[in-house]
Backbone:
């Protein structure tokens, strides 16, 4: 019995020692867990405050025109400070601020602006004091990038636009979209905006400028002076010349945008054409040939097989109020240049065929290849070979589609400036003009959400399929009536703002 009592007392002594030693280990662990939860809470709140400061002040930085102006930079930093303070209460969990900074900067090469907000808080420990740790530091950082917008607006000024009376609405909506500071999301002095119009020929109505609203002339003046008229639809030239202007800016860090507004299908294309023996001198003729678009008995889908004449060669650059009065300079010895009335309509007698490759002839800088006109597109495939006869309207229309399709593909494959294509297709309630080809325009934009509406065996498309082409820059297509045009432009503006953040 005495031996048993001694054993029990020994066990109680061991348990006491075990509790003592275990407490020395468990108390710091429990304290560490509690203090870590406090630090985790502070870290989350501090990061949220930095994020809010960077994002909110980033919107102000987007509309700031000059980061070399200390007053504008101070306003951005003050905004960041206010949003930080609103999201991180003073002495949160007993913390005290060790450091805070916000820095707005711009890369003058890429034109990308960045706003970085950094903060550090010192947090007092509750239980870790027992092991000599009185406080810990928590840091957070947030950075936002803002890009300039370089935008070329491409406007279809073909005859159908004026015929339907849409030119007045387009002028008004474009003015609100880009020329009026109170209604435009684009910032004069920071963003770059220019405009190209096309009929049969093309015209740089407004060279890209950062002072597009305040400059003289302004883009508003250019919009009001668009030369609407009875012209063809050389979509390829409008797209190419807009792309060329963006490439010349050479700002890969900017959001480069091409916005195409059109109401029709291509009916013209540019190239170099060789004359037959009817021309006394076999000059290459540089300019535009096109097929008239009329409401004949031919089917609208695909492009017509008959019912229209082919004419040209007119100057590829806009020369005056009446495009067809300005023939290619080398046309003087051709019979069509000597014809009374409408000399361009006799062009096929001098130029019976067009080459299998064609494309813009103005401003070519050696980096842009030729484009397939006849036959299946060499890049993506669109319309099959309808021949190269200039007396065949179907051949000319298919070539106009193929050239424009190839240029749009090259734009989407540009990995240097990565242009984004926005396309607005304008429809009319009346039946005075050829119907819109929404499937093709959505293909031009490379809209990933668009579903094909019409099957077309010539183009190899099936209703319900996708127009999206992988590994090419995605864009957006909007179909709009004249009455809905303002909303379509607002949708474009919203997408551009989202992409520029």
Residues:
């Amino acid at each position: 019995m005495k031996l048993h009592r001694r054993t029990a007392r020994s066990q109680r002594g061991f348990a006491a020692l075990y509790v003592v030693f275990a407490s020395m280990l468990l108390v710091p662990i429990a304290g560490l867990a509690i203090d870590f939860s406090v630090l985790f809470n502070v870290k989350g709140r501090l990061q949220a405050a930095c994020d809010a400061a960077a994002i909110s002040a980033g919107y102000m930085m987007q509309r700031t025109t000059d980061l070399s102006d200390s007053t504008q930079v101070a306003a951005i930093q003050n905004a960041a400070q206010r949003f930080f303070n609103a999201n991180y209460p003073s002495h949160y969990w007993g913390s005290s601020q060790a450091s805070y900074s916000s820095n707005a900067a711009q890369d003058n090469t890429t034109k990308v602006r960045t706003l970085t907000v950094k903060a550090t808080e010192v947090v007092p420990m509750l239980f870790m004091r027992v092991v000599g740790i009185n406080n810990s530091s928590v840091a957070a950082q947030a950075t936002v990038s803002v890009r300039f917008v370089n935008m070329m607006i491409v406007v279809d000024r073909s005859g159908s636009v004026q015929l339907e009376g849409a030119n007045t609405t387009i002028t008004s909506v474009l003015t609100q979209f880009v020329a009026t500071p109170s209604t435009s999301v684009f910032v004069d002095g920071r963003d770059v905006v220019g405009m190209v119009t096309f009929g049969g020929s093309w015209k740089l109505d407004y060279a890209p400028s950062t002072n597009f609203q305040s400059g003289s002339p302004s883009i508003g003046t250019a919009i009001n002076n668009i030369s609407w008229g009875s012209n063809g639809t050389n979509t390829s030239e409008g797209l190419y010349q807009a792309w060329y202007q963006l490439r010349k800016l050479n700002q890969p860090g900017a959001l480069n945008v091409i916005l195409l507004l059109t109401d029709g299908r291509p009916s013209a294309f540019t190239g170099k054409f060789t004359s037959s023996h009817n021309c006394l001198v076999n000059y290459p003729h540089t300019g535009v040939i096109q097929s008239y678009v009329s409401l004949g008995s031919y089917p609208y889908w695909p492009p017509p097989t008959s019912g229209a004449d082919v004419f040209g060669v007119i100057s590829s650059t806009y020369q005056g109020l009446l495009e067809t009065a300005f023939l290619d300079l080398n046309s003087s010895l051709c019979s069509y240049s000597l014809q009374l009335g409408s000399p361009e309509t006799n062009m096929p007698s001098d130029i019976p065929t067009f080459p299998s490759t064609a494309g813009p002839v103005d401003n070519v800088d050696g980096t842009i290849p030729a484009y397939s006109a006849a036959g299946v597109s060499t890049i993506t495939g669109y319309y099959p070979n309808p021949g190269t006869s200039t007396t065949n309207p179907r051949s000319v229309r298919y070539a106009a589609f193929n050239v424009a399709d190839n240029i749009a593909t090259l734009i989407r494959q540009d990995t240097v400036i990565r242009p984004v294509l926005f396309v607005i297709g304008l429809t009319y309630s009346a039946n005075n003009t050829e119907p819109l080809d929404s499937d093709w325009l959505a293909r031009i934009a490379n809209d990933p959400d668009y579903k094909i509406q019409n099957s077309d065996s010539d183009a190899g498309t099936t209703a319900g399929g996708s127009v999206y082409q992988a590994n090419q820059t995605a864009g957006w297509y909007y179909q709009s009536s004249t009455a809905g045009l303002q909303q379509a432009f607002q949708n474009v503006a919203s997408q551009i703002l989202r992409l520029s953040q």
Summary: Residues 2-147 form one domain.
